[in-house]
């Protein structure tokens, strides 16, 4: 594969918001990361098909090559095809896992914005959402297709709301304030491990004044400490205006470990509680039983007095 020209400097103005969806619109499913388990994907696809016309290429979607859903060239070709599809209005990532970082140097940023469409995913998709934000395209940090059947109906309805309604609205409530404050800024972040890998690359979105949200799964507390320290050393917390802590699922020492360790909650509070910016926890997003969708790259307001995160503009137009 030949790499395209370098990414442009990060930009927020003007932000491109893809066209809103309507029931009956065509959506595409792709697997640019790990192998997509057929039964789970088909269950999620059936839920989406109750509202939209779902399209995917079974041979491509269910391909497996080690811990990837096929070779890089195949996964890139499918993602490029979905981005270029004139009929589809949104792209849903089938599952997370690993692999999107490998594709970033070959994703032409003009393809993201030439025919803008809503991109929905999280976890490993953090890399793609970050790239989109860098290119000036809004997207949605939301459930993977494999996760949809396990989520409450309210999360699915909230996702459809973000896809179909361009206005303001409540995103998160009952946030627990650690450091109080009220700020506005673009919403940027995602999976802590994947997001940290964008630092020092040309694919990190502009963090100036951003409201940073973070979640993770399966990382031991000392690794979370190391990741947060990495962000700190890289100047991330000097740039952003606030931090929202989501779910850190199964982030604990394994049974039988001889390491004396604080909990991940204690690590996060100790490392982030010293920041001079608003900090909240309890965001209902991540790898657990709930995963509230969030507009990525768009303007939001965090208000610890009301324990809320509110969208000031939609993820779609």
Properties at a glance:
317 residues; alpha/beta; six-stranded mixed beta sheet
Q: Helical percent range?
A: 25-40%
Structural class: alpha/beta
Strand element count:
14
N- to C-terminal separation?
34 Å
Radius of gyration: 18 Å
Strand content: 15-25%
Structure explained in plain terms:
This protein is of the alpha/beta class and 317 residues long. The chain contains eleven helices and 14 strands. It has an eight-stranded mixed beta sheet with strand order 6-14-13-8-9-10-11-7. A six-stranded mixed beta sheet has the order 2-1-3-4-5-12, with helices on both faces. Strand 8 (182-191), helix 8 and strand 9 form a beta-alpha-beta unit. Helix 9 packs parallel to helix 11. The chain starts with 25 loop residues before the first strand and ends in a 6-residue tail after the last strand. The mean pLDDT is 94.
Task: Please write out the topology.
Blueprint: E1 26-30, H1 38-49, E2 53-55, H2 58-61, H3 72-84, E3 88-93, H4 100-103, H5 109-114, E4 118-121, H6 126-134, E5 139-141, H7 153-164, E6 169-172, E7 176-179, E8 182-191, H8 192-196, E9 211-217, H9 221-233, H10 236-239, E10 242-249, H11 264-272, E11 279-281, E12 294-296, E13 299-303, E14 308-311
Parallel strand pairs: 1-2, 1-3, 3-4, 4-5, 8-9, 9-10, 10-11
Antiparallel strand pairs: 5-12, 6-14, 7-11, 8-13, 13-14
Helix pairs in contact: 9-11
């Amino acid at each position: 594969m030949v790499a395209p020209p370098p990414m442009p400097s990060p930009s927020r103005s003007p932000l491109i918001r893809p066209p809103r969806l309507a029931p009956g619109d065509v959506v595409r499913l792709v697997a640019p990361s790990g192998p997509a388990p057929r039964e789970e994907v088909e269950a999620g696809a059936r839920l989406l098909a109750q509202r939209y016309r779902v399209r995917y290429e079974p041979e491509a979607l269910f391909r497996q090559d080690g811990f990837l859903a096929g070779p890089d060239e195949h996964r890139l070709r499918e993602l490029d095809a979905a981005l270029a599809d004139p009929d589809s209005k949104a792209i849903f990532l089938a599952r997370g896992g690993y692999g999107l970082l490998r594709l970033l140097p070959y994703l032409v940023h003009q393809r993201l914005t030439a025919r803008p469409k809503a991109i929905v995913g999280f976890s490993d998709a953090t890399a793609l959402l970050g790239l989109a934000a860098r290119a000036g395209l809004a997207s949605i940090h939301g459930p993977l297709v494999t996760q949809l059947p396990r989520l409450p109906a309210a999360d699915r309805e909230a996702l459809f709301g973000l896809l179909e309604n361009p206005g303001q609205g409540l995103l998160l409530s009952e946030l627990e304030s650690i450091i109080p404050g009220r700020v506005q800024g673009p919403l940027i972040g995602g999976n802590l491990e994947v997001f940290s890998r964008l630092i020092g690359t040309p694919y990190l979105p502009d963090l100036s004044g951003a409201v940073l949200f973070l979640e993770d799964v399966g990382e031991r507390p000392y690794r979370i400490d190391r990741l947060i320290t990495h962000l700190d050393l890289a100047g991330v917390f000097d740039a952003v205006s606030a931090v929202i802590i989501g779910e850190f699922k199964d982030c604990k020492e394994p049974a039988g470990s001889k390491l004396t360790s604080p909990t991940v909650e204690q690590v996060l509070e100790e490392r982030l509680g010293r920041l001079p910016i608003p900090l909240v926890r309890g965001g209902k997003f991540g790898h657990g039983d709930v995963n509230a969708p969030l507009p990525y790259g768009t303007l939001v307001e965090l208000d610890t007095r009301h324990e809320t995160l509110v969208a000031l503009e939609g993820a779609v137009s």
